[in-house]
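A.,

Following up on our hallway conversation. C-alpha cells first:
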C-alpha cells in the first residue's frame, strides 16, 4: 500500500466533494446559474488529460459543482404551491394507520402527481380500518410542510428527505374509500405500492392476539422494517443498551440474508446465475421493507459485492462504500441529511477502516489456530469499530452514549441471526411462531435487565455540529496515523 492512503480511495475523495457541493447548493440562492459552470469545468477537465494532477483537482471541483447543481434541482422539485382553501383529490394509502392523540395518521400519495402527503384523519372506526393500497377521495386543504425544530431534529427537512411535500387534516365527513386509478403513477411507484401491500399482508400474519405484543413489534421491525408497533418503553430499552441498530434494517440484516441465500442457492458451476438470483432476492426484500436509506445502501453494496465476486476481485472496500454513496446522492441529494444515511455510512466506513487495525492485536497465525477466539475477537472488533463510527452522531442527535454496547452486541447479533433465519420458516408454517417469539421474548427480557444496570448509558450529551465534526477529525486523524505507521513498520496485515 502506498504511504499516501488517500491515493488508494479516489472515489472517497469524489464522494466528499459531492457532499460538500450538496451542502453548498443547499445554502446558495436558486438564481445562481450552476449548470453552465458545471459544463465548463467538465470541458476543461477533458482538455487537461496530459496534466494528471491538475486534471484531478478540476475533476474534484466538478463534483463539488455537480453536488450544488443536484441539490438546487431537488429544491426546485420540492417547491409546491398548493391551492388556497379546500380541494378535491384522489390518493392511495401508503402506510398503516398510526394512532395519534386526536387523529389517525397515514401516508398517502396523490394519484395524479405522485406527490406524498402526511394525512391526518378524524379518529373513528373507518380511519382505523384503512389498509395499505386503499384508494381515497378527499376534500380538504393541503398545507406546506411544518417548519419546526426539536433540539437538533428538523421536522421539515425530515419530511423533505422522505419525499413529503405537504400535509392535510381531514374531518370525518370529507373523505371516503373509493377505487382510484394508478395509471398516472410511474412504474416504480406502482411496484413500490405492490410490495407495500404484500408487506401489509405479511404483517397481519405476524400480528395475532395470542402472542406477546412487544415480541410481535420486534419481529415486525427486524423482519419487515415496520416499527410502528414498537412502544416508547421498548424503544428506550434498545436505545439505552445500544441495540437500536437491530430494529432498523441495515447491512447486518441484509448480510445475514445474503449468507442464508448463498447457502440455499448452491451453484458453483453456475456462479453468475446464482449471484444474479441472490441480488434479485435482495432487491425484492428492499422493496418489501419500504426502501429505507440504510437498506438501499446495504443492497447497493451487496450488489457491487456480488458483481466483483464474479471477477474474484476485492469486494468490500472504502471505494465500494464511496461508490454507493455517489450513486445514492446523485439519485437523491437530500439523502445526505437523512440520519439513517449518515449513521449507516459512518458505521460501515469505521468498520472498513478500523477493524483491520484492531485485528492486528493478535497475529493471524495465532487467530487461525484458535478459531473460537478469532470469531469472538472479530465480533468485538467490528462492534467497537461501528460504535466509534456512530457514537458522535448518536450523541448529537439523541444525546446518549450506551456503555454496555459491546456486551449487547455479543447477545443481539447471534439472536438477530436466529430471528432472521427462522422468520421465513414461520411465515410458511405459522404453527412454529412460538419458537421465534420465545427467542424474541428472551432477548427483550435480557436487554431490559441490562438497561436497568447502573451506568447503562450516559445521557444529556448534546455536542454542536462543530464539536461533532471535530470528534470525527480526531478519530480518523489518529486512524490515518496508525495506518501509516503500521504499514511503514511492516506490521502484518490480517
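Then the amino acids I'd put at each of the 494 positions:
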Amino acid at each position: 500500500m502506498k504511504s499516501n492512503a488517500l491515493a488508494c480511495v479516489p472515489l472517497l475523495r469524489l464522494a466528499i466533494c459531492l457532499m460538500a457541493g450538496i451542502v453548498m447548493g443547499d445554502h446558495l440562492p436558486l438564481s445562481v446559474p450552476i449548470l453552465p459552470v458545471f459544463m465548463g469545468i467538465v470541458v476543461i477537465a477533458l482538455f487537461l488529460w496530459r496534466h494528471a494532477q491538475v486534471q484531478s483537482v478540476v475533476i474534484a471541483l466538478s463534483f463539488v459543482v455537480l453536488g450544488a447543481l443536484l441539490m438546487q434541482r431537488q429544491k426546485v422539485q420540492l417547491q409546491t404551491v398548493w391551492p388556497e382553501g379546500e380541494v378535491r383529490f384522489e390518493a392511495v394509502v401508503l402506510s398503516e394507520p398510526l394512532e395519534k392523540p386526536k387523529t389517525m395518521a397515514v401516508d398517502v400519495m396523490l394519484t395524479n402527481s405522485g406527490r406524498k402527503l402526511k394525512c391526518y384523519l378524524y379518529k373513528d372506526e373507518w380511519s382505523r380500518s384503512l389498509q395499505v393500497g386503499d384508494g381515497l377521495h378527499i376534500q380538504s386543504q393541503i398545507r406546506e410542510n411544518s417548519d419546526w425544530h426539536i433540539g437538533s431534529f428538523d421536522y421539515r427537512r425530515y419530511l423533505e428527505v422522505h419525499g413529503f411535500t405537504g400535509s392535510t387534516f381531514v374531518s370525518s365527513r370529507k373523505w371516503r374509500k373509493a377505487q382510484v386509478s394508478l395509471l398516472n403513477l410511474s412504474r416504480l411507484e406502482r411496484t413500490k405500492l405492490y410490495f407495500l401491500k404484500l408487506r401489509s399482508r405479511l404483517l397481519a400474519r405476524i400480528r395475532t392476539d395470542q402472542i406477546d405484543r412487544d415480541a410481535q413489534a420486534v419481529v415486525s421491525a427486524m423482519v419487515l422494517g415496520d416499527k410502528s408497533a414498537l412502544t416508547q418503553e421498548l424503544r428506550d430499552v434498545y436505545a439505552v443498551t445500544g441495540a437500536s441498530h437491530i430494529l432498523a434494517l441495515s447491512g447486518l440484516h441484509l448480510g445475514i440474508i445474503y449468507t442464508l441465500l448463498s447457502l440455499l442457492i448452491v451453484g458453483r458451476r453456475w456462479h453468475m446465475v446464482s449471484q444474479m438470483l441472490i441480488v434479485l432476492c435482495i432487491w425484492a426484500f428492499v422493496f418489501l421493507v419500504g426502501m429505507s436509506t440504510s437498506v438501499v445502501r446495504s443492497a447497493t453494496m451487496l450488489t457491487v459485492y456480488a458483481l466483483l465476486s464474479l471477477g474474484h476481485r476485492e469486494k468490500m472496500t472504502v471505494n465500494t462504500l464511496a461508490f454507493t454513496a455517489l450513486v445514492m446522492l446523485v439519485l437523491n441529494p437530500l439523502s445526505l441529511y437523512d440520519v439513517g444515511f449518515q449513521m449507516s455510512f459512518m458505521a460501515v466506513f469505521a468498520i472498513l477502516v478500523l477493524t483491520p487495525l484492531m485485528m492486528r492485536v493478535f497475529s493471524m497465525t495465532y487467530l487461525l489456530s484458535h478459531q473460537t477466539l478469532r470469531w469472538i475477537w472479530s465480533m468485538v472488533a467490528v462492534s467497537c469499530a461501528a460504535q466509534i463510527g456512530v457514537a458522535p452522531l448518536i450523541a448529537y442527535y439523541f444525546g446518549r452514549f450506551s456503555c454496555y454496547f459491546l456486551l449487547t452486541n455479543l447477545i443481539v447479533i447471534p439472536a438477530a441471526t436466529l430471528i432472521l433465519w427462522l422468520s421465513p420458516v414461520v411465515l410458511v408454517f405459522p404453527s412454529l411462531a412460538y419458537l421465534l417469539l420465545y427467542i424474541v421474548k428472551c432477548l427483550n427480557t435480557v436487554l431490559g435487565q441490562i438497561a436497568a444496570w447502573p451506568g447503562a448509558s450516559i445521557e444529556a450529551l448534546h455536542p454542536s455540529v462543530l464539536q461533532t465534526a471535530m470528534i470525527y477529525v480526531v478519530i480518523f486523524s489518529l486512524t490515518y496515523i496508525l495506518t501509516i505507521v503500521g504499514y511503514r513498520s511492516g506490521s502484518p496485515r490480517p
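The radius of gyration is 24 Å. Curious whether your intuition agrees with the design.

B.
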